[in-house]
Amino acid sequence: MSASIQWRKSSFSGGDGPECVELARRADTTLIRESDDPHIVLTLTRPHLAAFITGVKAGDFDHLTR
Fold it and tell me: I want to staple 49 with a disulfide (CB 3.0 to 4.6 A). Which of 17, 24, 26, 44 is the partner?
């Protein structure tokens, strides 16, 4: 990954600790990584990210946090 990518942390990710989820934009994709393992990056297109966010808001993944 390029050092010029501007990563942003979620305000719900625990601040500067190891549980930070970070996102960045590159061209027409969104990049997602965990701060404790920044070399593994998930790349999503806008439609895929929108579908994921819709699923999160609908509670489709709530069972994964219990």
Answer: 44
